[in-house]
Amino acid sequence: MKKNYLKYFLLCTFLLIISETTKYFLLIDKLVYNSLAENLTSSQINNIISLQKKWQWIGYLFVPIYVLLKTSIVASVLYIGTFFFNKNEITFKNIWSIVINAEFIFLLMPIFKIVWFYFFQTNYTLEDIQYYFPLSAINITGYKGIEAWLIYPLQTLNLFEVAYIIYLSHQIGSLTKTNADDGLKIVSYSYLLALLLWVTVVMFFTLNYS
Which of 43, 66, 100, 194 fits a 20 to 30 Å CA distance from 12? Predict the structure, then answer.
């Protein structure tokens, strides 16, 4: 169990480091300033940025809470899946360990984003950074001119998510002492269905409130 907590701590730490690295290399504060300059005065913008920096520690606290909630929810969904589709007794602790490991895959996304905008697309806006998802469907369609309710599902449809599902399937298969195909079945009927439901809910609220 100590290993799980260590991996959880490392995951949170890497997320915070990558977040600060993104701000530094992609000049996020400057982009925010330029974006707000269209509607606010310099004094108002400086007050907003100062207030944001004053309370940024709340954002740091949110990261471990977010990671814990996400991994616990995913692990719970998978645990239910193993309960219905597997005869072997599986513990929640073991599934949570697998989910923690899988989350490291998503750390590659912001790293890809930093590399892309720092070396390749050097002329960019705050919106470009917000909507860019490496190796996702939205990079094929582009976000400009796309209906707002379609943006999130197009972002979610990416190769990192595919790698995440493949890893979960392989590890669940090993944990249940079956194979990757059975693991994929469990992941499909639990995690994938939950993900589809979540995307549908986001699309619904975006469609109704945008």
Answer: 194
Q: Of 186, 206, 203, which Cα lies nearest the Cα of 74? A: 186
Decide: 97 and 7 in contact? Cβ < 8 Å.
Answer: yes
How distant is the alpha carbon of residue 19 from its chain centre? 12
Type of residue at 101: N
Number of neighbouring beta carbons within 10 Å of residue 172: 28
Contact present, 187 and 164 (Cβ < 8 Å) = no
pTM, entire model: 0.90
pLDDT(27) > 90? no
Joined tokens for residue 192:
């994938």
Quick: pLDDT tens for 40-62: 777 777 777 777 777 777 878 89
Residue 47 has which token pair?
Answer: 């007050």
Residue with tokens 């239910």: 80
